[in-house]
Amino acid sequence: MQDFNAELWLKNNPEIESLRAVFLDINGVMRGKRLRPDSLEKIIKGGVRMPLSTANVDIWGRDIDGSPWVFESGDADGRCDWTQRGPLPINWTDRPAAMVPVTLADDDGAPFMGDARNALASLLARYQDLNIRPVTAFELEFYLVDPKAAIGDGTPANPLSGVPTIRDNVLSVDELNDYDALLGDIYQACEAQNVDVDAAISESGRAQFEVNLRHGDDALKVADDAVLFKIIAKGVARKHGLAASFMAKPFAERAGNGLHLHFSLIDQDGKNLFDNGDQVGSAMMHHALGGLLASMPSSMIFFAPHLNSYRRLAIEQHAPTSVCWGYENRTAAIRIPGGPPSGRRIEHRVAGCDTNPYLVMLAILGAALHGIETKIDPAPPITASSYDLDLPQLPDSWQAAVAAFENDTSCDSFCPPVLREMMILTKKQEMARFAAEITPLEFASYLDQV
Q1: What is the pLDDT of residues 113-171, one digit of tens each?
Q2: Is it true that the peptide bond before 96 is cis, omega within 30 degrees of 0?
Q3: Staple partner for 96: which of 15, 140, 171, 356, CB 3.0–4.6 Å?
Q4: How far apart are CA 435 and CA 402, in angstroms?
Q5: pLDDT of amino acid 1
Q6: How many CA atoms lie within 13 A of 337 on its CB side?
Q7: What is the reported pLDDT for 422?
Q8: Contact, 112 vs 53, CB < 8 A?
Q9: Are 100 and 40 in contact (CB under 8 A)?
Q10: Measuring CA to CA, how many Å separate 282 from each of 222, 372, 376?
Q11: CB atoms closer than 10 angstroms to residue 185
Q12: Beta pairing, strands 325-327 & 334-336
């Protein structure tokens, strides 16, 4: 799309009334500007500017206290570079609009490494230098929620019958049919934005769904697709009077929302480098596993970045709690799916869907590459339920995960120093605010009882 003609695009899309120049902050929240359609050429040519500090705000959108990218540097602007994706039509706003995804860069043109997409692109360039291409796919889980009852049950009434939903309808075709209008609008928006969405299933929670993105050998596009899918699902759900929640554990008694990444590696000829002709997998696959297991505890800040994230990681909740891997074992943090050896791949099952997909892919592919380059051997695969075994445990709290990331260097091979500092500062500020809040339950429990 290097020869993109902004004038021609606007002529062919006369209905567009506004543009959004957008990027993702460290928490995976969309930030950007609303612009007139005649600003498209300016966006494409890098003429739009935004503060670099915007990549490093907390979950409430506040500046980070003590951040070197705020007052210490004069809160300097950076350049916004077009990702060559878009403009992407939006069909859920009141007026016709389009998004133009951008990334942040320094004034000298160097990609700003506090932008998670830039960090992932830098890692993928290292794979390219080795003549290796990751083939990746995401699975995303989310709930449809009645926003008027967001705290509490929150389950929307059946859109066709109006009757409250009470069943946990895993793989229910009826539930897919009941929400066909909403899901159809999501798929239509995905097609308009070239998001390669595949199958959808009804998951194990009421009004919970899983959508799979197609495998692709352009890992950056796959990550972009995951980002765009979350934006699309939220926007379309609002249009239908609902909220799409990718929160890791929106309901205490129901299944959480996971974000699983499947990946393999291919060479220049398209050969799967994880395939050794049998079910065991190649030495390269095992070294990738070794790297993933070695960095898993310190990578939890990427896989479970929020206070709520750790409510999902519980025993027998279809979410891992320990550092382990196994063949066809969904209780393990890393699963090697079955099937013919030519399709041998790794499924990483730790991350929740409340994450930034760029950071999840960065942490997984970065750890795998480190394991391959240094030839790390994994522990033996587990053959029983991980919940019944004595295994190294993942950090079980937000505080423990931040401490593991801060005190361990195993992420240094793939996490740029700028991004590392931003993650630590952001999570510590968020933890401080949550720690300072007195919850209604705490107030009611102790007010006149002690």
Answers
A1: 999 999 999 999 999 999 999 999 999 999 988 887 655 566 665 655 555 665 555 54
A2: no
A3: 15
A4: 15
A5: 46
A6: 15
A7: 94
A8: no
A9: yes
A10: 24, 11, 13
A11: 19
A12: parallel
Tally of CB atoms within 10 A around 47: 11
pLDDT attached to residue 291: 98
Lowest mean per-residue pLDDT among 9-23, 36-50, 58-72 = 58-72
More confident residue, 201 or 269: 269
Q: At what angle do helices 219-239 and 357-374 cross, to 10 degrees?
A: 160
**Can you tell me the distance from the alpha carbon of 256 to that of 245, in angstroms, rounded to the nearest whole number?**
11
Q: Count of residues for the chain? A: 450
- The tokens describing 243, both together, are 């909220």
* Cβ proximity of 143 and 257 under 8 Å: yes
Angle (CA) 75-32-425 rounded to 5° is 50
Look-up of token digits 């003549």: 131
Q: Which tens digit of pLDDT belongs to each residue from 200-233?
A: 776 656 788 899 999 999 999 999 999 999 999 9
For residue 80, list its beta bridge partners.
Answer: 104
Rounded distance between C-alpha atoms, residue 81 and residue 104, angstroms: 6
- Reading the block at residue 127, the tokens are 């794979």
Which residues, including other chains, have CB under 8 Å from residue 271's CB and lie 6 or more apart? none
Does residue 17 have a pLDDT over 80? yes
In angstroms, the CA 185 to CA 236 distance is: 7
Q: Regarding beta strands 197-202 and 49-51, do their DSSP bridges make them parallel or antiparallel, or are they unpaired?
A: unpaired
Per-residue tokens: 314: 């519980």
Chain mean pLDDT for the chain:
91
Q: Please name each of the domains of the chain with its CATH number.
A: 6-112 (3.10.20.70), 124-415 (3.30.590.10)
Neighbours of 122 (CB within 10 A): 15
Q: What is the pLDDT of residue 206?
A: 76
The whole-number pLDDT of residue 156 equals 64
Residues 6+ away with beta carbon under 8 Å from 427? 301, 305, 398, 402
**Where do the DSSP E strands lie in 25-131?**
30-35, 49-51, 77-82, 88-90, 97-105
Helix (H) or strand (E) holding 264: strand 259-266
> pLDDT tens, 44-89?
999 999 999 999 999 999 999 988 887 666 778 899 999 999 899 9
Amino acid letter, 302: F
Please provide the DSSP assignment of 162-230 as one string: -PBP----TT-HHHHHHTHHHHHHHHHHHHHTT--EEEEEE-SSTTEEEEEEPPBS-HHHHHHHHHHHH
* pLDDT tens column, 102-114: 999 998 889 999 9
